[in-house]
Amino acid sequence: MHEPAVTLFDDVPSATTPNQSTEQSTHDLLIVEADGGSRGNPGHAGYGALVRDPKTGAILVEKAGYVGIASNNVAEYSGLVAGLELAHDIDPRCRILVKMDSKLVVEQMSGRWKIKHADMQKLAGQARRVVDPRRVRYEWIPRERNKDADRLSNEAMDAGMAGVEWKPKPSGQSKPARVAGEEAAVAEAPRAPTGALHHIEIWVRDLESARSSLGWLFERLGFIPKDTWTSGASWSGAGAYLVLEAGPDVQDERHERRRPGVNHLAFNAGSRAEVDLLARRAASHGWSLMFADRHPYAGGKDHYAAYLENDDGFEIELVAAPEA
To answer: Taking a C-beta distance cutoff of 8 angstroms, is the pair 46, 156 a contact?
Structure first.
């Protein structure tokens, strides 16, 4: 995470004025990342927003919401408003750098493009009322650098289309993000047992193909991108990390899970509804449902799971938590 130059805010008044309290701001700067999407444009729409500490890169709070039937632009503006509200709740005096992959929102809120659409005019006005516009700056970022907000907006759309409330998913971070409207539970982490899993390294012949299917699924399951290098990438979470490696020693042939060795990986994937949603979304990322005639009980009558296979022959099992 690159910390922006202070010169972005040189024209911003100091945190206190003669008519204000001398209480100091707890944060000099907060970063808001926001996104929105619509499946149909207009269609089922949702937004995602989070506040990040620019010094540590940690997510301080996150929020997602279903908008209903709306355009992609309205959803993006809704994410902006939510992000500004989150930052204001943390520190009503801090400066804010908003990062979005929507060129339209960034240019319009920076005053360089005119806002013509009535719905967006209303949301832009709401954003300006939440926080003094002089304390806010906007920066366009590529979509691949806005993955957390994109993840949240997709979760919101999934939840809305399923008729349920959005609920946060485990982030895999050592200190999970606080969810808007809730206090994070404070508990001492249990000591890891000797022999606990450290990491899994998966050799693949096509790294980009593996990242678009396996990597996509890892991130949907809460694993966080960790490192990348010429022939590989890694994701961390749940006290371990996962590696995809496509180095020169990897044989150029399709993976065969039926040979001696590891057959598949199985992950806890939340509730039954969450398993179903993830399995459906995976179809757009190179995954096919296995054992369709026995789904979702291919593993037994008391074992609710989705078994998926990608184009390279890797199998993943998504296991639902037992119902109470």
So the answer is: yes
**Rounded distance between C-alpha atoms, residue 234 and residue 214, angstroms:** 11
Distances in Å between the alpha carbon of 243 and those of 40, 214, 228? 35, 10, 10
Q: Where are the alpha helices (DSSP H) in 199-258?
A: 207-210, 216-220
CB-based contacts of 248, cutoff 8 Å, min separation 6: 231
pLDDT in tens, 261-303: 999 999 999 999 999 999 999 999 999 999 999 999 999 999 9
- Considering Cα of 224, then 225, then 227, then 230, what sign does the dihedral take? positive
Name the one residue in this structure whose structure tokens are 């149909």: 40
Q: Within its chain, how far is the Cα of 308 from the centroid? A: 22
Total residue length of the chain: 324
**pTM of the predicted model as reported, rounded to 2 decimal places:** 0.52
Pairing of strands 240-245, 305-310: unpaired
List of domains in the chain: 27-162 (3.30.420.10), 198-319 (3.10.180.10)
The predicted pLDDT at position 227 comes to: 86
DSSP calls for 42-62: TEEEEEEEEEE-TTT--EEEE
Q: How far apart are CA 150 and CA 168, in angstroms?
A: 14
Nearest to 282 by CA among 160, 154, 164, 171: 154
Task: Say whether 215 sits in a helix, a strand or coil.
Answer: helix
What six digits make up the tokens of 210? 């593996």
76-90, 152-166, 253-267: range with highest mean pLDDT: 76-90
Per residue in 29-66, pLDDT (tens digit) is 999 999 999 887 788 899 999 999 999 999 999 999 99
